[in-house]
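Q: Predict the assembly, please.
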Amino acid sequence: MTAAWASLNGMTLLAILAMASISYGLRISGVFLAGRLNLKGRMRAAFDAIPPAVLTAVVAPTLFATGPAETVAGALTILAATRLPLIGTIAVGVVSVVLARAVFG
Amino acid sequence: MTSKTPLEEFKDGLSDLWPALVAAAPIALLFGTMAQSKGLSVLEVGLFSALVFAGGAQLAAIELWSTPVPLFALMASTFLINARYLLMSASFAPKVTHFSWPQRLISFHVFADENWALAERRARTQRIAFAYFGGMGLLFIINWTAFSVVGALVGPFLGDPRRFGADFAFIAIFIGLIAGLVATRSSFFVVLASAAGATLAYIALGTPWHVLIGALCGIAAAAIAHGDKP
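A: Predicted assembly structure:
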């Protein structure tokens, strides 16, 4: 029997390998694209918008469609993010969600 | 100009990278803890961090993780979040054409936001040595993988991470990263459009559709806000 710490699930491994291939593919393709990729205008703006658009899409349902505790904590965290470094924002988020969950149950 | 030995290049890398190593450690700990709470084993967490090695994509994947594993959503989310690497590596590759092919193939696996930004800055004044860039990458991936594994090991003793609000630390990191990216009025529109699209998609269709639909709404907003400027 395999120890629990070393267990490997087939689907989990497949997902990790798929994500690893995509990540490496994107990293190495710049080497081959260098000098050939010439994004301009609208395409460039759309490409540049990818990181904030994706990060926002991941967290929005937790903030706006989960419960009042998450919404309140989210508002405080957004406020913190405009004023504090990343580590401070994390601290505010964690503390405010624990308190908000205690209040809203 | 005197040329430096590989050891000196490596030490330069360490002195540039150390703040990023410290900042990444708690994020890796949380990744490991959360991944463990979603049922991943310690070995799986270690492989995850060493093979994927992308903080944002890994945090998003664990946020999306469920049983059965939503393979397509994980791949789509990873592609969208890591699409920036394409531009970053296209910008950096011309600065390391003196690397041998094995050196390039290795050093572009350990290519991340922080060591990339540091190397781009150094490239303005000096040649990038493999000992510098590869060394930083090696330190960064070991740091990330080791703290992920520690998170997976101590996770079971911490109990439900929700008690400590650890699940919300992900959300807070993402909010902090988004705030760092929102510098212009058009990026503010991107965030608004993406948040609205993702929330509506989540209510109407559920997970994982909110990621793709929200992201496309934000990307479309950027293209529209850009107008017909060159």
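Chain A touches chain B through 74 residues (CB under 8 Å). The first helix of chain A runs from residue 10 to 33.
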